[in-house]
């Protein structure tokens, strides 16, 4: 089963290796990982998406919690959380298909963040499945390169973090 | 140097002194010379090992024998990688260690400099925590923190990697930085509700059992365990790590459990309705096949580490916290109970399934028997192999921390250096190593250090000219094909000991055992007794099937 694990930790060298090592030694492939600063000075927050056996992942979560630099590690349940991913897609625009492309851009609420001659960079934000469908729609056009951030997630309301 | 200022190296030694470190086990190198220069001016004793792995095992043995933190030190590169086995060994058995490694100067890190290795990277999964020190001002606090981490919660090794230029960098004490340990809050007190529920379960139990693990020793809870067992009339089985947590000859003691466990202990596990597991992680050697493990029992799992709860064996009732506090509370709440029928049944099983090792001639059981009569309460240190299990079965101990062995990692070569550390920690006690010819050769060079440092220990080499445990496994599972297990008879262990300045004796007849032990203990220096065993006997019981009750004995 797919899990979204959230980790609040000290922003210090080596934290990433310590965290990822606990997944890799059990043979888990991290599907996505995003990390950044938080409202707390000196603290970072990871969102890690990983597929695996529930029991083993609970063991990983407990081991994460044991790392000295980790303040909290918890599993985010999907319906209780807002999730976002961000993608940048570079497309070569065929002038004959321009109008059609603009329509799709509007439909998926993408934005054109750069246009240099016939090459545009589009920006898409949404949960994983809406970013997936945007990619699906743009597949018809010539994608030169693309990149996605990992998922980030916050629980609705006070969330379990407040209760922990 | 101005007043109030000092170098990193001096700060290290001063902090170690302030932390009441009495002995450091180490081996110098280019990247630790500034520390050695300061150590020379200190009251701290330095024991010069003959290989860094031995330094780590010595610190480990010291920690296990005393309960204090063991400190070891090596240089960068090969010195640091040589520590790795010792750190992993301490990590698996939750032994409190602080390791200091030298590192190349900061400006050269990452440049593949001479004797550079990423030791914090290498030891990430085998230390409780580690540090790469960036500036001298961090040193006092990081060292204190390392000691705090090593010795609290679930204990374990902590490593500090210190670049050489940080050791010689000057800083003023007012600059010393103090970051907070926000993410580290080990639970100490067990949940009162859970403790009450445990009392309820134990009161209703008809076939209760205590499993005592290494955590009872690490958590200093042996007295509470004994009171608990007697008050509740609860039989006790121990894991290899927990052997000295309970008097081995106590009428409620069932002995070692698990893969090589006594039939009575494994019967108790299989038939119990309530198991109180204290400070054990249910390692696979102690459980045997998990599918059928303790199938009729509700398991109350008491452990300091929440990650151990339901990791291997599902806990019916987990209690996270210090085993001393929790067991103490259980003793207070538990009324006196009687389980005469159950105890009688288990004692009956024990009587019908005695140990079947030959108690005469030049055999391991007989040597251990003679040793026990001559030295009733030594600190017994074992190596790893067949002799280790023999020692667990045939040498009953009664005091905490009097049986030291490499349990989790199973490190051959642990015995001799660990015994040296143990002897320094408890000089008033005779320290005896039971080793094998395979294990002893792995770290025998440490005998040179034992002689030079005047550490009088007695080593009994159970010499059967083969790797006994390998032979046993090949007998059981590989059709008796003894591939790569014959060591030959070309090593004269007595001569080896003599060549290093120790006393070396050779025993080839039963009546020579006692005089050799007598001479070894009274000679005042390290002694190796080469015991030429008359047989290469396998150690039983051994679980061979899909449950603890399918065994060969």
Write down the domain tally of chain B.
3
Q: Tell me which CATH architecture of the largest domain in chain B applies here.
A: 3-Layer(aba) Sandwich
The CATH architecture name of the largest domain in chain A reads 2-Layer Sandwich
Tally of separate domains of chain A: 2
- What coarse outline of chain B follows from CA principal-axis ratios? globular
Q: CATH superfamily assignment of the largest domain in chain B? A: Thiamin diphosphate (ThDP)-binding fold, Pyr/PP domains
The total of helices of chain B stands at: 22
- What is the helix fraction of residues of chain B, given as a range? 25-40%
Q: Report the order of strands and helices of chain A.
A: EHEEHEEHEEHEEH
Measured on Cα atoms, how large is the radius of gyration of chain A?
19 Å
Strand content of chain A: 35-45%
Low-pLDDT residue intervals, each spanning 5 or more residues of chain A: none
Rg of chain B is 24 Å
The percent of residues in helical segments of chain A reads 25-40%
What does the overall shape of chain A look like?
A: elongated
**The CATH topology of the largest domain in chain B is what?**
Rossmann fold
How would you describe the overall organization of this protein?
The complex is a heterodimer of chains A (164) and B (553). Chain A has five helices and nine strands. Chain A has helices spanning 15-24, 54-66, 98-107, 128-138, 159-163; strands at 2-10, 30-37, 43-51, 70-76, 81-92, 111-116, 119-126, 142-148, 152-155. In chain A, strand 6 and strand 7 (119-126) form a beta hairpin. The model of chain A has no long low-confidence stretch (mean pLDDT 92). Chain B folds into three domains: 5-175, 3-Layer(aba) Sandwich (Rossmann fold); 192-352, Rossmann fold (3-Layer(aba) Sandwich), CATH 3.40.50; 364-536, Thiamin diphosphate (ThDP)-binding fold, Pyr/PP domains (Rossmann fold, 3-Layer(aba) Sandwich), CATH 3.40.50. Chain B is 38% helix and 18% strand. In chain B, helix 1 runs parallel beside helix 6, helix 3 (52-66) packs parallel to helix 4 (78-92) and helix 3 (52-66) crosses helix 17 (415-425). Chain B is globular and about 75 Å long. The chains are: A alpha+beta (164), B alpha/beta (553). The A-B interface holds A 9-10, 13-14, 17-18, 21, 25, 59, 62-63, 65-72 and B 120-121, 124-125, 128-129, 132, 149, 181-184, 305-307, 311.
């Amino acid at each position: 089963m797919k899990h979204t694990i959230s980790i609040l930790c000290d922003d210090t060298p080596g934290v990433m290796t310590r965290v990822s090592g606990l997944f890799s030694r059990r043979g888990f492939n991290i599907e996505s990982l995003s990390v950044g600063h938080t409202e707390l000075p000196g603290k970072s927050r990871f969102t890690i998406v990983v597929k695996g056996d529930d029991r083993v992942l609970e063991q990983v979560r407990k081991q994460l919690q044991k790392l000295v630099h980790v303040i909290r590690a918890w599993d985010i349940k999907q319906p209780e959380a807002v999730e976002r991913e961000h993608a940048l897609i570079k497309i070569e625009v065929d002038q004959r298909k321009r109008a059609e492309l603009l329509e799709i851009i509007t439909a998926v609420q993408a934005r054109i963040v750069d246009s240099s001659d016939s090459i545009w960079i589009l920006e898409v934000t949404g949960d994983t499945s809406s970013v997936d469908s945007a990619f699906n729609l743009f597949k018809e056009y010539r994608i030169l390169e693309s990149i996605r951030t990992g998922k980030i997630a916050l629980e609705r309301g006070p969330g379990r973090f407040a209760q922990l | 140097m101005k007043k109030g200022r000092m170098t990193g190296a001096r700060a290290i030694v001063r902090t170690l002194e302030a932390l009441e470190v009495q002995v450091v086990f180490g081996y110098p190198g280019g990247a630790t010379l500034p520390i050695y220069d300061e150590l020379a001016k200190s009251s701290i004793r330095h024991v010069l090992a003959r290989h860094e792995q031995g330094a780590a095992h010595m610190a480990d043995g010291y920690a296990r024998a005393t309960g204090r933190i063991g400190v070891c030190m090596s240089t960068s590169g090969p010195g640091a990688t040589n520590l790795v086995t010792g750190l992993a060994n301490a990590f698996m058995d939750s032994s409190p260690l602080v390791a200091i490694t030298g590192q190349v100067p900061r400006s050269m890190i990452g440049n593949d400099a001479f004797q550079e290795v990423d030791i914090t990277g290498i030891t990430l999964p085998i230390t409780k925590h580690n540090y790469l020190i960036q500036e001298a001002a961090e040193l006092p606090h990081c060292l204190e923190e390392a000691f705090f981490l090593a010795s609290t919660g679930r204990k374990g090794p902590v490593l500090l990697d210190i670049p050489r230029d940080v050791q010689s960098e000057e800083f003023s004490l007012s600059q010393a930085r103090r970051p907070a340990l926000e993410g580290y809050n080990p639970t100490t007190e067990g949940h009162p509700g859970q403790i009450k529920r445990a009392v309820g379960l134990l009161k209703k139990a008809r076939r209760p059992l205590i499993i005592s693990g290494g955590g009872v020793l690490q958590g200093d809870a042996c007295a509470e365990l004994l009171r608990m067992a007697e008050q509740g009339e609860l039989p006790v089985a121990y894991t290899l790590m927990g052997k000295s947590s309970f008097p081995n000859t106590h009428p409620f003691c069932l002995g070692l459990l698990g893969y090589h466990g006594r039939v009575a202990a494994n019967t108790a596990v299989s038939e119990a309705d309530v198991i109180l597991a204290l400070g054990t992680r249910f390692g696979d050697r102690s459980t045997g096949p998990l599918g059928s493990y303790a199938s009729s029992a509700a398991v109350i799992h008491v452990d300091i580490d929440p990650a151990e709860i339901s990791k291997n064996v599902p806990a019916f009732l987990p209690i996270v916290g210090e085993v001393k506090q929790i067991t103490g509370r259980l003793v207070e709440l538990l009324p006196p109970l009687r389980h005469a029928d159950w105890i009688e049944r288990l004692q009956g099983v024990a009587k019908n399934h005695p140990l079947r090792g030959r108690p005469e001639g030049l055999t391991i059981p007989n040597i251990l028997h003679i040793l026990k009569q001559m030295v009733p309460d030594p600190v017994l240190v074992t190596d790893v192999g067949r002799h280790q299990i023999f020692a667990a079965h045939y040498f009953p101990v009664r005091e905490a921390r009097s049986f030291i062995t490499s349990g989790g990692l199973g490190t051959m070569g642990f015995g001799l250096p660990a015994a040296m550390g143990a002897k320094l920690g408890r000089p008033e006690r005779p320290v005896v190593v039971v080793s094998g010819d395979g294990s002893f050769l792995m770290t025998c060079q440490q005998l040179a250090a034992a002689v030079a440092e005047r550490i009088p220990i007695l080593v009994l080499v159970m010499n059967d000219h083969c790797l006994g445990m390998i032979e046993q496994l090949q007998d059981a599972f590989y059709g008796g094909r003894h591939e790569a297990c014959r060591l030959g008879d070309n090593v004269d262990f007595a001569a080896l000991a003599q060549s290093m300045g120790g006393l070396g004796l050779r025993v080839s007849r039963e009546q020579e055992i006692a005089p050799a032990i007598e001479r070894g203990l009274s000679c005042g220096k390290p002694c190796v007794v080469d015991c030429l065993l008359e047989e290469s006997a396998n150690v039983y019981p051994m679980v061979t099937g899909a449950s603890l009750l399918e065994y060969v004995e």
